[in-house]
Amino acid sequence: MQKVEHTGRDGVHDIGPFTFEGGGHVESLSVGYTTYGELNAARDNMLLVLPGTANTRHSADGYIGSGKAFDPGQHFVVTVDAIGAGTSSKPSDGLRGNFPQYNIRDMVHAVCRLVTTAFGVKRMAYVAGASMGAFQALEWAIHYPDMMRGVILMVPAAQSGNVFRGAVRSATEVIKLDPGWNAGNYTLQPLAGLRAAGRLYFPWTVTDDYLESLSESGLEQELQKTVTRAAQWDAWDFIRRYEASASHDISVPFEGKVGLALAKVTTRVLILPTSTDRLLPLASARQIAEGVAQSHYVEVPSKHGHLGWRPIDGAPETLFITTAIQKFIKEGETS
Fold it and tell me: Which of 69, 98, 175, 308 could crosslink 274 through cysteines, CB 3.0-4.6 Å?
């Protein structure tokens, strides 16, 4: 079968006034997105892909395409910028430190408005995401359980653990040590602090075995990739986004009980943790599997830890994840 190239189409939708779970409010909230493929007449073939903490709507592009995990020839694939980054509303638009603190459920409720108002979709095919994208996808399954046929969670967790929270706290605090931070009233970006935050954060996203397999120059090259990405952020955008991700806890609206939250999930759920993830506890992924009635749990063999989910052409993890997702979708379509 000949593979078809699918070009993404970008858009930004204003969902109007928005009140955050923590009580903050804005009169206008924008959500950026890119679409691939076509929405069918029944408006029920949308596959929504959600971004990770450090990512925009393009973080999963390597999984999108003909014959790939998210095939625009089969589904109307929509990737979004969550609140706080990309072309969605964010602190650097002008409010900076006065931009309301937001959380994962705020991201979900905002994108739900996008889905229903911009596309007129009441029920999607699938919702998918990795890391913070998986946090969002899980909250979708809890709070909008009838809006999708299935959910795909790559490197997920029901709650952010102490390792992740500690790494985020250290990364955000080191930004504030930069003299240019100026109590958040910076004129120029505190780039030294942002670069240091990226350097500090990176080792937690991989494994000791992977780090020790690198040469000294190889390690520096890997660190520089994260340093470069961190320096591309606005400081307030970085801090608010990582704080939101670190606050992830599905149990908050359910008396602090994870089991009560997971019991709300009635759709099929594919759970794809990497076998060596130390940023997010593997036990939390297993907890999701145990608490969801229609769960499909598959550990991804990897020495790359949390970053094992990232789409890399020819990588065994990418092939493994793609195969697992295609199988999950095929079984859902035929059941």
Answer: 308
What pTM does this model have? Answer: 0.96
| Cα end-to-end span (Å), the chain | 25
Task: Give the CA distances from residue 55 to residues 230, 251, 322, in Å, rounded to whole numbers and listed in that order.
Answer: 11, 25, 20
Burial class of residue 33 (count of CB atoms within 10 Å of its CB; 0-12, 13-18, 19+):
buried
CATH code of the region 9-161+249-334: 3.40.50.1820
pLDDT bin (cut points 50, 70, 90) of residue 326 is very high
What single string gives the DSSP state of each residue in 185-200? --SS--HHHHHHHHHH
CA distance 218 to 14: 44
Mean pLDDT of 279-286: 96
- The two tokens of residue 72 are 């625009």
Task: State the Cα–Cα distance between residues 320 and 315, nearest whole angstrom.
Answer: 9
Q: What span, in angstroms and rounded, lies between the C-alpha atoms of 324 and 271?
A: 10
Render pLDDT for 120-142 as a digit per residue (tens, 0 to 9).
999 999 999 999 999 999 999 99
Burial of 271-288, coded b for 16+ CB within 10 Å and e otherwise, reads bbbbebbbbbbbebbbbb
CATH 3.30.720 holds for 162-246? no
By three-state DSSP, how is residue 207 classified? coil
189 has a pLDDT exceeding 80? yes
Strand partners, 296: 270
Q: What is the DSSP letter of 88?
A: S
User: Domain extents for the chain?
Assistant: 9-161+249-334, 162-246
Are 273 and 285 a contacting pair, CB within 8 Å? yes
pLDDT at 1 over 50: no
Q: Which two tokens mark 28?
A: 């206008």
